[in-house]
Each structure stands twice: as structure tokens, then as C-alpha cells.
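User: DUF2156 domain-containing protein. Structure?
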Amino acid sequence: MKPRAVLARAGRLIVQHPFTTGVTLLILVLALVTGPLRGPHRPLRGWVGAGAIQLIDGHWWSPFTAVLFTDDLFELIVVLILTVALVGVSERLMGTWRTALAFFGTAAVGIVVGAIVQVVANNVGELWARNVHGLLVLDVFTAIGGTIMTASAFAGTLWRRRIRVITLLVAIMYLLYSGLPSDLYRLLAVLTGLGLGPLLRQTRVTGGWLRSSHHEVRVLLASALTITALGPVIGLLGSTRYGLLSPIGLLFSNEAPSATTVVERCQAFAVTRACFRDLTLERINGLGPVLLSVLPLLLLLVAAYGLLRGRRFAVWLAVAVNGLLALLSALYYGILPIASTRPVVSPRYWEVTIILALSTLVPLAMAILLVVYRRHFTVLPSMRAVRRYVLLLIGTGVGLVGLYVLVGWLQKDTGFTRPVEVGDLLADVLERFVPVSFLRREPVEYLPTTPLATIVYHNIGTVFWIVAILGAIPAVLGRGLRRRPGDDASHVRELLHRGGGDAISFMATWPGNSYWFDPIGGGAIAYRVEGRVALTTGGPFGARGPHDGAIQGFARFCDDNGWIPVFYSVDAHYTPLFERLGWSTMTVAEETVIRPQLWATTGKKWQDVRSSINRAQRAGIRSEWTSFAALPLTTTVQLSDISEQWVAEKDLPEMGFTLGGLDELRDPEVRLMLAVDEHGRVEAVTSWLPTFRDGIVVGWTLDFMRRRPDSINGVMEFLIAEAATRMKEDGIEFMSLSAAPLAHTAATPEDDKDTMDRLLGFLSSSLEPVYGFRSLLKFKQKFQPELHPLIMAYPDPVALPAIGIALVRAYLPELSVAQAATFVRGRS
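Assistant: Predicted structure:
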């Protein structure tokens, strides 16, 4: 971009964001004038800073001036970046005067209320308030946090939720692990912004927790796990160092004393604060103990990455590590004492008890959240991968314990500050795997004195956690994992490439399916069991027809397992076979098929499609035929936003079964057709599932359809028309616009309707206001498609209630009882 264009663009941004520009320049100028390296000096610092004492002394202006100054150069750089980014976004969302009000208003409320809390707590003798009573606060982050939280009310559903969750978590973690008055003020400002935003917007914002797709739940939980894992680092980097990693900070101030001196001075009944400090210094004397305190947190970060990828393995890994940290906190901080010799928190200092209890509750709460929402992580590990990892940890742990005991026994007379026995070594060895921050209240029986004993004493725990991290990485990255229980994914894809299936056969690769393989014909049937009903995902695939033997074989297989076989969304040409078997059939959908080689948009019937194409072209929108893996990160983020906006604004959860979501777009054989404007903004997206014959793609089936709420009218018609043109050029035989579930044009006489017809009609009518299946079918008819009826076949009409429930569970696996009740009331 030319310099003149850059300047012009910068000028437009300044004009569009006057408050952001003004406050950024004000912060920068004040820092340069008063001291950019170390902040303003006294007495100016006491005049502009905020705090309980300042407000008591009548410095009413301090809540406003305290959010305009910084403490050092690094903070100044971070503040300038965040002000431009976050305050700028806030001003774009809610305008200039609202942003100014939020910036200074939330900060003022947070500081004033926080100071009142400090004064009241100090008057009643609360320990924390006494310690921080005289501290001054210069903190721009208080105003930034309150501003972005206020602006969240003006954001879309997706970003509103993300902003609120992440901002609150960060503010809470700072309060828990740093504990400065500024951290309290910042949290109160954020909460003030949470209430101020809806008032400024003056339109109703849904107060309840809107539903999320699997993808968004993964993003939020991964973010929460990352923030809680990094929380102790806040204490390490901060001046207060109240966090679980605070002992590591001692390494940066003093050298460790000798082991002999420490043990001589710190005998039983003579333990002082200085003694605790020296014990901690000696325990973390060396790289190994420092790493031992950090590595469990790194393992949590590995698990957080696995959560983003939907790995159930990562869920249980994070639950195990958080559960272990909670147990260690409760045990070693005296909350759950199991031995009378372990010091217990004195009831005189109830504040300390609360702080230590929080160190237990934070990881425990994270573990509980992961267990509750584990269903959103659908990529399941193979038992072989889990077994391999567990055996690796057990083998490594036993081997390191044996090494410790062996080395200790060989040097029992010379390697430690006193002679040791095997019993002493076994009693001490487990603590070698525990982060040293948990051991600062533990009495020390002996310490190593020789190089070999020191290496083993300080490093076996480090080796164990490194092995735990390295062993978890393959599972998190996908090796040794399977997407479904009990299947052979590679064999299924081989059969799909062979062909012989229908337009939705590729949905067999989706999570949740199990497979029956035909031992005679060589084909397969994908199915899922809901209750005692086995619902197929389309018909047989992987072998040329007829499929009579496969259908009958699968029916026998289901009967042997006590299941009711139901062939769902299969082609109507199977009807004679099911009639011979004595089964009942009914039309559940109509597939809309286009022949690309006959594609043309001439004639009056195509007027709407032509208008949509012309409108998109005039708006500068182009089509892009690609795959998910080929997209840059900025584009994948846009797809996530478009999808989540659609999901979050529905009154019911995201549907599954024969309806794919964002995760299904990632398959390397799936193709995407994007509508992209001149600035690279994705306006809409469609995904296309392949149909093969002898390894060659002969057809594509439309699956995923999402568009931005503010995109131009007709963008979907434009995308489908572009896809048809592309397929015509590629020589594709058919293009299926798929079938809208529970929607078709075939009329059933009222007298002929059975219970299932009425139930499916009820479901179709009920879901129409939310998902618009009938409207979708009407939309697809714009393209003059062939209509191919799809049927459901079932052997026993008595089982119709169970089949209806199974269909609801398959399409809406996350439907709660409350949602179901609301759903039914809405139709009554």
C-alpha cells in the first residue's frame, strides 16, 4: 500500500474514533512529561493516584486521573496497544460519547466502591485490607476493562459472550493471584460495565446464557483453562507474589543457603518465617525444581490446545491435572489434613483460610466444568492410545521411584544431611513429584549434599512431568485417536471412494456413527443407536446394487442386539424391498438434485437467481472454491463467527445427525464455496460433500449453509449458482442441494396418516420457526431441481413412539428437558 493511502486510511480512523485518539495521545503525553520509565514521581504520584487514603483525604479527582498514568515503560507500551485496539473497537460499536462515559464512569465506580470496601474491611481488622491500605493505584487497565465490558452489550451474540467470559476470567484471576487494590478496582469496573452496557444500548439484550455450538463451547473452555493455568504466573510476575508459584520468585532476589545450615536452623518446634523462606530456597535450588513448579501448568496448556480440537482425551487430562492441583492445595495447605504433624491454618486468620481455600476451589471448579460439558468434545481416543499413555505414566513413575530409592540407599550414609533408611526414602519420594510451592509448610527431614543425590532429589519429578507432557502431545495432535467408537475410519473412506452409495453417504464419516460391514457383499451401513433404535445414515454404500442382502443382513444384526432397525433418508426405490419384508415406509424428505451439465439460468423461472447473481457482482462479491485447510487463519475465524452467530440466536440447540456443523467443514475431502467481498470479508459459506465412483468424484451434496445477518440479499443464490457453474466445468454428473429434514411436497391424505406421520408433521411444524426447513425446501425449488423422495422404513409400527424419540435425540442431542417443555408449549 502506498504511503499516501496509508496516511489517508489513518486519517479516516482518527476521524471515526476521536475519543480513542484523544485518550491515547493524552496517556502518551502525560507519560512523556511525568516519567515514561518509572511513572510520575512524588508528590505528583500521590496527587494523581487513587486509593482509600486519597479519597479519604478529599482527592475526589483521583478516580479519573489514576486511569491516565502508567507505572513503567513496558506498561505504557501495553496500555497504548490495548487502548487503540480495545477502546477503538468499543468506540466503533457504541459511539464516542458512550465510550467516554464507559471509560471514566466504570473506572470511577470501580475505584470508589473498591476504596469503600478497603476502608470498611480495614476498620474491622481484615488482614488483606490492612496490608494494602496505603497503596497507590495508577491503572489504565481498570478503565479499559470497564469500557470493553460495556461495549459487549453492543456486540453480536458471539463476541458478546466471548468478551464477557474472557474479560471476567482475566479480572478474577488477577484478583486471586495478584491481590493488589488495582485488581479489586478492575473487577468492580468490569462488573459495572456489565450492567451499564444494556442501559446505554436502550434495547433488550438477552440476559440468559445463549446456547453455543460444540465449537464455541470448546473455545470458551479452552480459554478458561488457559487463563486459570497462567494465573499463577501473574503472581510470579507481580510484586505481591501471592500465587501458587510465589516461591519461584525468591530465586530472583537471594541466593539459596546451604542445605546443612537450613536443616540445623529449622528443626522441629523452631520453625520461623525466615526458616520457611530458607527451606523454600533450598528446595528450589536448581533448574529442576523450578521446572517442576511450571510443568503441570504447561501440561494444562497442552490440554487447552486439545480442547480446541475437540479431544475428549484433553478433557480428562485437564480434569486429572486440575483435580491433582486441588487435592494438593487442600492437603498441603491444611484444608484437608491427614496427619497431625502437618500444620493447619490458624482460625485466627480466616482471610488466609479463604485465600487457601480459593487455591483449591479454582482448579476444582475448572475440573467440574470440564466434566459437565464433556459431551461437546466428540473426538474420542482409542482405548489403545489411553492405555499406552496410562502405562507410560505408571512405568515412568515406578521407574523414577525405584531410581530415587536405589540412589538414596547407595548414598544413605554420605549423600544427605543425616543417615537415611529405605523407609525414610519411601516416605519422602512422592513429594519429589509435587511442585515445591505446595511444600513450603512441610518440615524437611533431610536434604541432599552430594552431586548425585542432589540431581536425583531435585529432578525425578521434573522428568516425570516432562514425560507426561511429551506423551500427551501425540494424543492431542490426533495420533492414536479415533473420531468414533468401534469403527475403522480408513476402511469406511475406502468404501466411500469405491461408491455404490447415495448423496448423503459421506455423512458416514461424521462423529457419532457406528458401522455394520456386510461380510458377503462387502459394503457397509452407517448407523447410530438412540435408546433401542438403530437409525441409519442413509442407505448402504461401498458396493454396487442391489443392496437387498445388505439391508436384510443389517436387520438381522439389529435383531441380534435387541435394536429396532430404522432405515432413515434412503432412496424411495427401496420401497418394493421393504414392502416384501413387511415393513412400513413413509416419506420424510425430498432430495433436490441439479444436473450441472444441463445448467442454465435463462428463462422467466430463473429471474430471481439471475437477479441475485447480478446483485452480488455489483457489490464486488466473488466466489471462492476451496477447502478449509487451504484457508488463512483470518478466514477460518470469520467462518467461526458466522456459524456461531447463527447458532447462538436460535431458540433450540444446534442440530446434528444429517446436518453438519463447523467441525465437519475441516474434512480434507469437503469443499467450500465462499462469497468474499472486495476487502476479504466472508459474506456467506456453503460446504459440499463428495460422492465417489471408483475413486472419482461424480457428485457434490450441499450441507453447510451460513451467511452473515447483514450480507446482501441473494448471496446464497449466488453461491449455489457459482457452485453449479464450477461443477459444470468439472464434468460433475449431479449436484444435490440435499434434503431439508422433515420437509417435502408429497401430500399424505388425512385418512392415511398414521401416528408417525402426525408426529413428524408436529416436529416439522414446531421446528419451522426456528430452523425453517420448509422455507429451505421452497428456497431450493428456485433452482428447478429434480425432486427425489427419501423414505424412512421401519419393521414394527408399535415401536413408532420409540422411533420418534430416537429421531428427536439424533437431531437434537443436547435438547434439555426445559427446552423440550418450552418447545411443546410453543406449539400448544
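The chain has a mean pLDDT of 79. The chain has three domains: 9-202, 246-477, 485-536+567-797.
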